[in-house]
Each structure stands twice: as structure tokens, then as C-alpha cells.
């Protein structure tokens, strides 16, 4: 495993563009541009595919040390309407 470029101190300061409270916890999120990875994700808002090739929103628990691994890909419209799309199951 290659050494991390950000040491223990740096990892506490990962850049976060924005944070909101949703489903009982703080979420960091950012808009991402589409890429050509060919992957697709499941949008937690509508349970439909989010193609990586489209611009969308990535959100992850701000308090999680492994937040990047727990990130979720949302349609930006679904993210913006998340309060109306609150999932019925636990999110931790
Ligand atoms: Zn969606």
C-alpha cells in the first residue's frame, strides 16, 4: 500500500465544499462533472441509475473517517429535493 500523501494531521483537513444535515447526520457533498469511466451508480433518491458520464452530486457522511468509501452518487435534482425523498430505511 503506497504511503498516503496527507499525513495523520492532513487527513483531518480534507477539503469540503459544503455540508448539510440530512437523515440525522452531516453530509459533505460536491458536484462532479461527468467522466468517461463507463460506470453507473444507484441514486439513493430515486433508486435509478446515475451514469458517471453525466454531471451529478456526490455526498458522503462528513463525520465518517472513511467517508470517501461511503459516498453516494445522486442525481443533482434528487439531491436538491432530498428532503422530499427521505429514504425509509436507516442510512448509517
Ligand atoms: Zn435520482
Structure explained in plain terms:
This protein is mainly beta. The chain has one domain. It is built from two helices and six strands; from the N terminus they run αββββββα. It has helices at about 10, 75-80; strands at about 20, 25-30, 40, 50, 55-60, 70-75. The strands form two sheets. The protein has a four-stranded antiparallel beta sheet. The protein is globular and about 30 Å long. The two termini are about 25 Å apart. The model is unreliable at about 5-10 (pLDDT under 50). Zinc ion binds near residues 48, 75 and 78. This is ATP/GTP-binding protein.
Which labels suit this protein?
two-stranded antiparallel ribbon, binds zinc ion, 29% strand, four-stranded antiparallel β-sheet, mainly beta
Unreliable spans = 7-12
Helix content range: under 10%
Strand content: 25-35%
Q: How confident is the prediction overall: mean pLDDT?
A: 79
